[in-house]
Fold each of these.
Amino acid sequence: MTIAIDKRPQGCAGTIMAMIASDGTAAAPHARALTEPTATLRDIADAIHALCIIHGSFPGVVDLAHRGCTDPLTRDWLEQAVTAVSGERALLVRLTAAVGPLPSTPGQAASQAAILGQRNALEMLSRSDRAGCATGTAIAFVLDWVAVRGVLDSCARRMALPAGTPFAGAASQAIAMLKAIEASASIERAMAFGAQQMLAQHRGLWHLLEARAAARHAM
């Protein structure tokens, strides 16, 4: 699925969608490389294991945002997103089991600490008491997962496993909800902050995984 982006973003919706296009997983060279037929199974396995550490446990980003949400419109969307993300979590766990053990990589302890730090940062954003922050985090997560799902689908094909339930519908619902939100300037700023920080964690993850791949290839 390709998310249509207005070249002249206006308001919170345009800002967040522009962030997804420029700073999200779709713009990460390593994530794109993992969807290519030339990607090594070791590199794919490394990414799947890392994603499972960050997003394979319950409660996740969307679950935590849903728990703390009081806005009726946003809560209705989050309830639907919780179901969609639950399926993605199950797919991620299945893929992690299928790809086998984590590939041996120099600097494993430091990498593990960094990945756990990213998971903790996302949890803090999703639990934030700042009105709008957790919502922005959850929206950005769902929209960015479209590109992450491409990596998962590539792994499933490589392992000859059934594809998961399509995720495009969840992303479309997120876009519709984002465009429908009417919020104060302070809440919109908080939403943009949550989205920005969520994307920063994913961006950092892809940079880390790219460095780990380079270290393995140099062994």
Amino acid sequence: METVLTYVVLAVVGVRLLTAARLALTGRGRATVVEVARRVRWSHVWPVPLVLTAVATVATLFWAVPGLDWGWWTAIGGQGNPIAGTTDRTTGTVWEWIIPLAFLLLVLPALPLFALAEERMFRQGAEQWAFTRRARKVLAFGLVHLIIGIPIAVALALSVGGVYFMNIYLRRFRSTGDPREAVMESTTAHATYNAFILTTGLVLVVLSAFGVA
């Protein structure tokens, strides 16, 4: 039963990623991707390793708490999260790297669109919120990743990234007074952060394919 579930999940994720990739390469989706890509500066890049280190540290601490290592994807035989396309069933086979490679390449062009959607959901309008609401949104940003099967400890740790993106949004709003500009700035930071993770994943998959990793 678990094998069937993992295959069903991978099929659904594959279709969703293909749809997102097509959207990112056409029409308004492409325009958004290009706009975000053109905005990237060194100031968006250098903080990423620091933020990821903080996320990893918090995740490690939470992982030690009983029960927080649970995620529905690993519970049915997956590894990591469904977007990586890795399962216990593909370990040791050629699919161990083919599926992750295909999925990661599909998600790559859509990264700015995913980032924009989350920034609109969790940061847009933050200049009008009280501190407590901002804190709830930061926590919700992390916990929403439970939907894609990420373990609870990791989802909680992703809230650290939420703090970083919230700060980016508020700082740009204070300097410009323009909510759209603030959203696009936090989207750029978010997309850069995700691109760093994705690129690292792609490198590891390629190394694995050649038996290096």
Amino acid sequence: MENQPQATTHQGLKTTLIGILFSAFLAILKAVGGIFGHSFALIADAIESTADIFTSTMLWLGLKWSSKPADHNHPYGHGKAEALVAIGIALALCAAAILIGRESINNIQSPHKSPAPYTLIILLVVIVTKELLYRFVHKTGLEANSEAVKADAFHHRSDAITSGAAFIGVTIGIVGGKGYEVADDWAALLAAAIILINAYKIFRPAIGELLDEELDPALNRRVAQLAGEIPAVVKVQKCHTRKMGVMNHADMHIWVDKNMTVEQGHVVAHAVKDNIQQHLPQFIDVMIHVEPTDAVD
């Protein structure tokens, strides 16, 4: 039977593989449609989908890496590999945005044909598919408590948004006719800006995880509350939480009766840990320092 980290990682791997397959299909569809349909916005979308394949592959490898058990050199496990992968995804998105933006500016300055009408059908298919993928992958990311999987989901959402921008640009280019051809390229430029924004949204929580940023204050309070539910616990202080991969860690000080034996204090600490993990199973470890009551400031 799989434990929770293994189960959530398996779920993330399965979701990622599905995303890779869909992204590969859509990248080919958009590239062919963009080249033959004279739409750089669609070609830009194809570039973004190709980046999807690359980053999703990175995610798949990262999930495999982060799921490795703790060893002699990594006693706390390999969970932070997920955050590294999320940062890699963000950087790849930035690179794609810069490439798309540069080519868009070049195309705006150069006259070219209006996009073919059938490119709109391709874009509609892409928008619907990518939005459905976003919802599916994001749901998995939330269930697995995985920043990397959630980052991959936002990548699908950014693809849907850029396709939406492309749809608007292509529509203007087709309906407007001569003189409006560059609307397609302006749409691609807008898509590049949206991609950069999404890259930041992915980067920010990932760097926070790498730097052991405190988790949500409400979650901290809940952890402290659960610790305080144990009758022998007089006081809870210095409760800190952090994320490592798909799981969380907590550290805290608890105060108990100074007349307790070491063994009794140990039993109380275990009761605190068990209570927290029973109610919040995403906490894979809880480090507890036991203090005597007369040590309270």
Amino acid sequence: MAKSKRQLNTVSVKMTEAMENVISEQLSNFDFDGILKRAEAIDKDIKDGKYAIIPPLSDEEQRLLDAEIAKRAPSPEGVPEAHDFPLHEMVIELGLDQPAEGAEPEFYEDLKKKNAATVYKNMKEIPDSIARKYIPDLARRFVEFERRIKRIERTLWALPREDRSLEEDRFEILTELLDKAAQGLEIWEEHCQRKIPLGHRCVLEGELIHLIDSKFDLIDKICGEFDKLKGQKSDVDDERDMLRYEIRHCDMIFTEIHEKFLKSYLEMEW
């Protein structure tokens, strides 16, 4: 019996030594330097805002903003300075940009590549515990609209046009559409703090985002092809009629979304 125990102990020691040798060999092949460098790179990316849900302004955006601010006349005494991105400041103040507990950065990076119309359209009945993790992505999209408006404004003002020309008329109607689409941000601002089921919020904000996005895309497309209709009054008239329809369409959908927000707040069906 004693001999058997000694044999077992010997076998156990040999197995332990064998395992230690295997582990030691695996560790010797491990690229610790590479892992540390990768960790340092990730840490730097995080500090630089690469994985931020709402990324900082790009260098070009910051340069243009600084140039715009430099041209402004100082505010009259007693009048506060205008905020360039009030929506972004509000999002930060309300903590809407904070990731949900347990949500990985990759989750939000992946959402940046997806269309709001498809991501959020069927979320009405999902519980708050699931919907909550999508709120930062929705907030990000509205903040990006705020920045995009400035880019579109610069594009519009750069369009070649003369006084009382067809191009001047086109500029004015495009500006009207931009102003109308931008009203969607006001609707979001009005309802973003109201207590409603988060699944409802995902659907309604997703619809709002899709509508605004489609109008901004249309403006960008027309601006990119602005010279195509130069001097063609009939085509310009058709374009104007189409853009006026787009403005009315905004009014109609904004009204529907606003009413649904109110119904959700009042716990009414829609």
